[in-house]
UniProtKB/TrEMBL annotation, chain A:
The lineage of its organism: Bacteria, Bacillati, Bacillota, Bacilli, Bacillales. This is Nucleoside ABC transporter membrane protein. It is found in: Cell membrane. The chain crosses the membrane at residues 12-29, 41-63, 70-93, 99-118, 154-171, 201-220, 226-244, 256-275, 281-299. Its main location: membrane. It holds the Pfam family BPD_transp_2. One of its GO terms (cellular component) is plasma membrane.
TrEMBL record, chain B:
It is a multi-pass membrane protein. One of its GO terms (cellular component) is plasma membrane. Keywords: Cell membrane, Membrane, Transmembrane, Transmembrane helix. It comes from the Bacteria. GO terms for molecular function: transmembrane transporter activity. It comes from Gracilibacillus kekensis. Its main location: membrane. Pfam families: BPD_transp_2 (PF02653). This is Nucleoside ABC transporter membrane protein. The chain crosses the membrane at residues 7-30, 88-107, 113-130, 191-209, 239-262, 274-302, 322-341. It is found in: Cell membrane. CDD domains: TM_PBP1_transp_TpRbsC_like.
Length: 317, 349
């Protein structure tokens, strides 16, 4: 049992971190009333930027390279998400369509530039990805230490901490209240002097930053290079986590951890007697099946923010 | 006023395509390629000889069908992002029938095609049902159904249709859409009779929507659910019907790939993208059956022509994906184009 936990938990944290980060972005965007199907594309952009920056500047920044890479990916991710914000907030575009276009565009740009710059469909492997490490002091605690703090990626803890930060910002600050108000009833918020369009822009930019962070963390911990097949569905899984977590940062974190568990079980299941008998396909489709069940109301009701997906026309009714 | 809005309806897609192509040229310039060479290669890749024309038609066939799948649901105000999954299950079902049954062509082929449509329709039924009965948003459900389709289909190919293999045996000749005659006049491209089915499906959609009371109800539900309910229409039934028929079109698209182009089905590492491209096709075609045919052909040309770009002009094929994404953006943000056009008109007066 102890050994099983010791092999599963770090793997769960490892697989969930990118999902948690990206899902947090989704929570911000959707809480402000902008549907973000484009999370997948934002992750693609983050993964692409993270890898390319890492490959290009590894000599210059040394051991700090992965950290600076994910920061740059965050910045580029949020710049990229401006397209979604302009289309869906300023031009009243259908937000789902705009999100689909974001996904196509990100993959198109990423692979196009990869081919132009590297002359082939995928980049080289990065020299400086994130490595596992033991957290000092905490790793020495008996039982808990080896399970939670040995051979862990520091980015996993970054994701968990950011989830709590996101919760604090959304639920304990005036900014968060305004952001949620804009997503529930934009007209009422507008009447109270909240700038609806500005709040939505900020929220979409935040989702771009988190999506870029999530994608780059995925690329620098799990994938180590970029190609058309680096991000395949993780963004949609993050979107599922947003909904399964009922549009709440900590709920999304829990859902992402659960999906991470499902993913890692499909990887490590062969080593665990009871799980080895479950067909792999069940574990693969579990996150999606559970999301459908959650939405159908079998696992508590999932209600979207009221104004989610509705463009706000000033003076419209 | 009505003539004006019709005018706009045509102008927006045309302007979007033009801006998309110009943006593509700028991207080629920025990445150090010659845009004229690039587009010349694209043209040659799509229309260069009878072989490429055959391949272009072959590639357009499923795009028209997935475009119809998205457009049909959209008429009822539903967003069918699930065309992707519906394509996959349709493909699987058609190939499965193609492999498992032994019958003369006159029975085998129609049954296999129909199996694809039914499988796609079933895959659209669940999101429709959840939407109609529980008010669950169809976008999320169909996205989840896409992944379930992908993983389940892969598992069935590995464990049922083959013995841990990645590609099935070719289907029986009696279930094949391939045509020696069509192939022989196009230098043995993979063109097949599917294009006729796609055009017929577009006709069916036009007929249902414009000429039957079913279509009238579907549209009415799309315009105003509550008013339709008040007028005595069965809203739930119409929502489910719309998703099932839309799913059926997408399933047909999968059947075209399975019975026409490939004759097999393989384990997929990712999506076919036919369903996602279908969204672009429907959007550009303004959800109109005839518009979808034109948009499907255009995207078929772009995608087939892209294959020639790396070898002749050194431009990566992904340029076309960028162009298509941009076209979607411009059509979706048509507010700005309409605004600019109306400004332009006023100034002219």
């Amino acid at each position: 049992m102890f050994e099983a936990l010791q092999s599963i938990i770090p793997t769960v944290l490892f697989y969930s971190a990118p999902l948690i980060l990206t899902a947090l972005g989704g929570v911000f965007s959707e809480r402000s009333g902008v549907v973000n199907i484009g999370l997948e594309g934002l992750m693609v952009m983050g993964a692409f930027v993270g890898i390319v920056f890492n490959l290009t500047f590894a000599d210059l920044f040394g051991i700090w390279t992965p950290w600076i890479s994910i920061l740059v990916a965050m910045v580029i991710g949020s710049i990229f998400s401006i397209i979604h914000a302009v289309a869906s907030v300023t031009f009243y575009a259908n937000q789902v369509v705009s999100g689909v276009a974001i996904n196509m565009l990100a993959l198109g740009i990423g692979v196009y530039l990869t081919k132009v710059w590297y002359g082939k469909g995928q980049t080289d492997m990065v020299d400086r990805p994130f490595y596992t490490m033991d957290v000092p002091i905490l790793a020495d605690i008996p039982i808990i230490g080896p399970i939670f703090f040995e051979g862990i990626y520091i980015t996993s803890y970054l994701a968990l901490i950011l989830a709590f930060v996101a919760w604090y910002v959304l639920y304990q600050t005036p900014f968060g209240l305004r952001l949620r108000a804009v997503g529930e009833h934009p007209m009422a918020a507008d009447t109270n002097g909240i700038k609806v369009e500005r709040m939505r822009y900020i929220a979409v930019l935040l989702s771009g930053a988190f999506g870029g962070l999530g994608g780059s963390v995925f690329a620098l911990t799990i994938a180590s290079n970029f190609s058309h097949a680096t991000i395949v569905g993780q963004g949609f899984m993050a979107l599922a986590a947003v909904i399964f977590g009922k549009w709440h940062p900590l709920g999304a974190m829990g859902a992402a951890l659960f999906f991470g568990l499902a993913q890692s079980l499909s990887v490590v299941s062969s080593g665990i007697p009871l799980l080895a008998d479950i067909p792999q396909v069940i574990l693969l489709i579990a996150p999606y099946l559970l999301t459908i069940l959650a939405l159908a109301g079998f696992i508590g009701r999932a209600d979207a923010p009221r104004a989610n997906g509705v463009p706000y026309l000033k003076g419209g009714r | 006023m009505t003539s004006n809005s019709k005018h706009f309806g045509l102008l927006v897609p045309i302007i979007s395509v033009i801006i998309g192509l110009i943006a593509g040229a700028i991207i080629m310039l920025l990445s150090g390629h010659n845009p004229i060479e690039g587009y010349a290669a694209l043209w040659a890749g799509a229309f260069g000889d009878s072989y490429t024309i055959g391949e272009t038609i072959r590639r357009s066939t499923p795009l028209i069908l997935t475009g119809l799948a998205v457009a049909f649901a959209f008429k009822t105000g539903l967003f069918n992002i699930g065309a992707e999954g519906q394509v996959i299950v349709g493909w699987l079902a058609a190939v499965w029938i193609g492999l498992a049954i032994d019958a003369p062509m006159i029975i085998h082929l129609p049954v296999a095609i129909l199996a694809g449509a039914i499988a796609g329709g079933l895959w659209g039924f669940l999101p429709g049902l959840l939407k109609a009965k529980l008010g669950v948003h169809e976008v999320i459900i169909t996205i989840m159904m896409n992944y379930i389709a992908l993983h389940v289909t892969n598992a069935i190919i590995r464990n049922v249709l083959t013995d841990q293999g990645t590609t099935t045996e070719p289907i029986a000749g009696t279930a094949s859409l391939a045509s020696e005659w069509l192939q022989s006049i196009t230098f043995y491209s993979r063109i097949h009779y599917g294009i006729l089915i796609a055009l017929f499906a577009a006709f069916i959609m036009w007929f249902i929507i414009e000429r039957t009371s079913y279509g009238y109800e579907l549209k009415a539900v799309g315009f105003n659910r509550h008013a339709s309910n008040y007028a005595g229409m069965n809203v739930s039934k119409n929502i489910i019907l719309s998703m099932v028929i839309g799913g059926g079109f997408a399933g047909l698209a999968g059947a075209m790939e399975g019975l026409g182009t490939y004759g097999t089905i393989s384990v997929m590492s990712g999506f076919t993208n036919l369903g996602f491209d279908g969204i672009a096709v429907a959007l550009l075609g303004a959800n109109n059956a005839f518009g979808v045919i034109l948009a499907g052909l255009l995207f078929g040309v772009l995608k087939e022509g892209a294959g020639e770009m790396p070898t002749t002009a050194g431009v990566p094929t992904e340029l076309v994906d960028i162009i298509i994404a941009l076209i979607i953006f411009f059509v979706a943000s048509s507010y700005i184009i309409r605004w600019a056009l109306s400004r332009f008109k006023k100034e002219g007066k």
